[in-house]
Amino acid sequence: MTMGQLTRSRTPRRARSPEAKAERARRLLDAALAALAHTPWPELAVAQVARDAGVAKGTLYLYFPTKESLGLALVDRLMGAWFDDIIVALNACRPPISPAACAQLLVRSTDRHRALVPLLAITGTLLEANVAPAAARAYKAEVLRRTLECGVALESALGALAPSEGARALLHVHALVTGLHRMAEPAPVVKSVLRAPRFAALRVDFATELTFALTALLTGFIASRKPSRTS
Amino acid sequence: MTMGQLTRSRTPRRARSPEAKAERARRLLDAALAALAHTPWPELAVAQVARDAGVAKGTLYLYFPTKESLGLALVDRLMGAWFDDIIVALNACRPPISPAACAQLLVRSTDRHRALVPLLAITGTLLEANVAPAAARAYKAEVLRRTLECGVALESALGALAPSEGARALLHVHALVTGLHRMAEPAPVVKSVLRAPRFAALRVDFATELTFALTALLTGFIASRKPSRTS
Amino acid sequence: MTMGQLTRSRTPRRARSPEAKAERARRLLDAALAALAHTPWPELAVAQVARDAGVAKGTLYLYFPTKESLGLALVDRLMGAWFDDIIVALNACRPPISPAACAQLLVRSTDRHRALVPLLAITGTLLEANVAPAAARAYKAEVLRRTLECGVALESALGALAPSEGARALLHVHALVTGLHRMAEPAPVVKSVLRAPRFAALRVDFATELTFALTALLTGFIASRKPSRTS
Amino acid sequence: MTMGQLTRSRTPRRARSPEAKAERARRLLDAALAALAHTPWPELAVAQVARDAGVAKGTLYLYFPTKESLGLALVDRLMGAWFDDIIVALNACRPPISPAACAQLLVRSTDRHRALVPLLAITGTLLEANVAPAAARAYKAEVLRRTLECGVALESALGALAPSEGARALLHVHALVTGLHRMAEPAPVVKSVLRAPRFAALRVDFATELTFALTALLTGFIASRKPSRTS
DNA sequence: TATGAATGAGTGTTCATTCAT
DNA sequence: GATGAATGAACACTCATTCAT
């Protein structure tokens, strides 16, 4: 009987409680995330996600009104986790840390959240279309909140950023991450073409270049503050 | 020469000579470029491009085997023009120029080639798919050639880059340009959402941030060389 | 009786008594009627009707097994009211009344029951499909009963119809009402097209034409009897 | 060789000439008409029509921009044929003919064009939605032209209609045809229900009732003119 | 060469109905 | 009795690409 109850509470046929509904949504996001590991967003079929999550297509639409809102919710989740990860890592440092150390920390965190990067790159192009204004606002509000929070942590860790420059620096981090990813992970055809030795100069190693650029960027942020101190 | 000019201005029904064929291709690219000013790539209809260029749909396919190859040819053209522009601007300077000055030069050049940026952002995701290996190779070879050429000009202008670091720096320029563009130009829904005052921290001014990041980056490139000199 | 009134005014969560159940059904029909004032039947969502009636979707299905049965019940109610109205109006006349007077009486009554007409027009096409045989029989039995009853009133009022021709005349009234309504109320696109002066000949004024046709029809019914009398 | 040419000209793979294109459209309309004999309009699948016509789905959309425009074109064709038939029949009479004779003529013509009637009944509800204003205008212009033309023929045949009342009478004919058809051809469930003897009064024989109503109507039209003469 | 008619795979979304709770 | 979460069949339409003419 206890068994039965457990079984029932684990996988109820109908999600009536808010927790159960959240669980359903989570499963759908899990399925989407897994599928995106081997399928680019435009090729991702809603039907497949639903099937993988073990529900009917219509059920997915009870939780996400459009395909894009599903994608946005996934980005929201992954970005939140990324921010969490960065914050934890930053707080684990004894400030002040050097730009290079901070860059390395950020790159490592990015590496732990590889799945987010390709999605981030299409946010604003493919995902943010076909989403209700309210949903877009909620998403952006969350992004804002977390960016500010993480920005403060960044300021603390570096110890040399002007107030609120942490958030700004994070926007640049995002830009660099997506921009470099695009160059590091081209379409399969291009990837195989670039394997030829003569194309060495066009091959981009994501971690190496990101570390380099972030170090330069953070150094720049700190330098841009220094003058005002000396003056 | 007179003949050639006449031929070009007459635009015969059938393009027999290489010049006439190149003219046809040019017209198609012109039409595509004009259409892309108000239509995002996925919404761009091949039929519309052909119609705008004054030819039948099938004719377009005589010059570009796929929609993507058309896009790639356009990127090729625009990127070439951009590289030309940068090279001219760099050569017009009396070296060495400061990273800040160089960044400003690059941003201005980018601004003169606004049309390229959104296309660049989807290269590798949408454009480089569905292209024959040979076409991809040719495109990448051209990119390589121009990148190296422009990289050398960059090295000369800055006067403080390690050999072949100019090309590498240009890859970063590309990454920053596309990465920041994505954040500066979101979908219409998002754009209107971000207009609210509370979202000020998420609004990105393309030119400002690009200038800042490029300055930092170039400074970093120069700094990364210095140590090896002093040691 | 006091109890019943209380119960009805309280609208308990669960309808146990027959009165309470009838009240529930009535509310659902009210909601459907209100919605149909601005939404055509195919666009009418069952969920919306339930929501408007303040019950859950599933509850509606406790009272009406299909969407169509809901529509049919509504037609039943409205047609009953229409018949009532006609009978009252006919009984208020001092027979015999002229065909023209009778036609006018019928048109006025139709005008007081405008909501029924578009529904009547789709009965038999959209409504009578997907209904259980038993429900269809019950509905038709009711229609028969009221038609015969109203037919007798019509015979009395006109004073010159052969027995049982009243019911037959009413069938023609229905046909004319729905047939003319279809022409008088086309889709919005067509309506705006027909506003052009050149289309005057295709514009149909419902009341005018219905009056004319009914007068002719009733005259015809009376005339068709006379010969048999004189012969 | 003559054979080959014949074969080729009969069923060319591509319809390039206007004639060939008209032929293609005709085939599609034929297929739709055939399908509508056993499938009601809402259930009619575009894919099926295309398949029956021996072309791909996309080809159908080269000729008809929406499903509704296909339906409207079919109505246009059938209504034109009906009008032709009526005109021929009217012109074959020696005027003046009696209302009863004229009614019989019209009923016979209707009977020869049975396929049109159910379509006519949904024109304005299902068909005239989702059609471009220009298409709706063209359709209505054609209807107007033919109605006026046929109206004149009707006036000639009856010899006793006020000018332009012929067209008006035809609108009533349409109304009666569709209104009575609705009652004579209910959904299968209802039809079987009505077979029970007790429901005899609700059974409508299309031809009988239409003849009766049209006779009355035309008599009414003529009568409505007479008074003005005597006065 | 040029044309443009033909192709047909591909998919997000709705909504009447059911049924576990 | 009431609920509302789950279902899943059903479908018009687009558009890059091909190929008969």
Strand content of chain A: under 5%
> In terms of quaternary structure, what is this?
homotetramer
The named CATH superfamily of the largest domain in chain A = Tetracycline Repressor, domain 2
Structural class of chain A: mainly alpha
**Amino- and carboxy-terminal Cα gap of chain A:** 76 Å
- CATH fold descriptor of the largest domain in chain A: Tetracycline Repressor, domain 2
Q: Report the C-alpha radius of gyration of chain A, rounded.
A: 21 Å
Looking at the structure, what is the overall shape of chain A? globular
CATH class of the largest domain in chain A: Mainly Alpha
Number of strands of chain A: 0
Low-confidence stretches of chain A: 1-9
Mean pLDDT of chain A: 91
Order of helices and strands of chain A: HHHHHHHHHHH
Instruction: Please describe the biggest sheet of chain A, giving its number of strands, its sense, and whether it closes into a barrel.
Output: none
Task: Please estimate the helix content of chain A.
Answer: over 70%
Under the CATH scheme, the architecture of the largest domain in chain A is Orthogonal Bundle
**DSSP helical segment count of chain A:** 11
Total individual domains of chain A: 2
The two chains with the largest interface, and their residue counts, are: A-B, 57 and 58 residues
Would you give an account of this structure?
- The structure is a homotetramer of 231-residue chains.
- Chain A has 231 residues and is an all-alpha fold.
- Chain A has helices spanning 2-10, 18-36, 46-53, 57-63, 67-91, 99-112, 116-122, 133-158, 165-184, 188-194, 206-230.
- Chain A folds into two domains: 9-63, Arc Repressor Mutant, subunit A, CATH 1.10.10.60; 67-225, Tetracycline Repressor, domain 2 (Orthogonal Bundle), CATH 1.10.357.
- In chain A, helix 6 (99-112) packs antiparallel against helix 11.
- Chains in contact: A-B, C-D.
- Chains A and B meet through helix 8, helix 9, helix 10 and helix 11 of A and helix 8, helix 9, helix 10 and helix 11 of B.
- The structure holds a DNA duplex (21 and 21 nucleotides).
